[in-house]
Design brief:
mainly beta; Jelly Rolls; 4% helix; 49% strand; homodimer; globular
Chain lengths: 119, 119
Amino acid sequence: MTDVVGLSDKFALFDEQWSPKIIAQVNGNDVRLAKLEGEFVWHSHADSDEMFLVVKGAFVIRLRDRQLALGEGEIAVIPRGVEHKPEAATEAQVLVVVQSEVVNTGDTGGERTAEAEWI
Amino acid sequence: MTDVVGLSDKFALFDEQWSPKIIAQVNGNDVRLAKLEGEFVWHSHADSDEMFLVVKGAFVIRLRDRQLALGEGEIAVIPRGVEHKPEAATEAQVLVVVQSEVVNTGDTGGERTAEAEWI
């Protein structure tokens, strides 16, 4: 079913942080929405690049050698296999494009792993 | 190279309409920016879904049996093989995710075909 999806409508449907929700799929990738606040775990995805687009707020993606600071309307792509650690001082609303089978903690796993679900 | 890309900075770099510019790649897909105004041609992409996100303005995607009206912050995915025809009453700024080898006119071709280039 091809339909129009409003990002703000979808963000209004959940409060959970670090628990991505699927809103669409494109060429084997999920388009996911996530609310981020605080620190996440270091992880990487061996088989998937990951694109982040900040819809509201701002956050930082720490890499092992530097960090990327993203504000509203800015994107970054973390290539497959590259360790990264998202952090947000205050809540950020982020759109993520990543292969559909990928979980949020990548190859790290652990208690913060959340299977993405449709919203 | 992993870096932060600002959508408004990139939109400011070109005026051409219906001529998508590549700003990133993710899992074999291009992330492209396009300025749309007026009517485009009916076309489809046999081997690629296509995601549209309206960054500024609004536009309509005509399908053979109905139409999708997208405003700012709204997305839609046109599945591979589905004929569609974008139209914009006034200029819209749109982010597109589509497989990297796809041209804007898909299987239709013709004079409005524009190879996407990096910006």
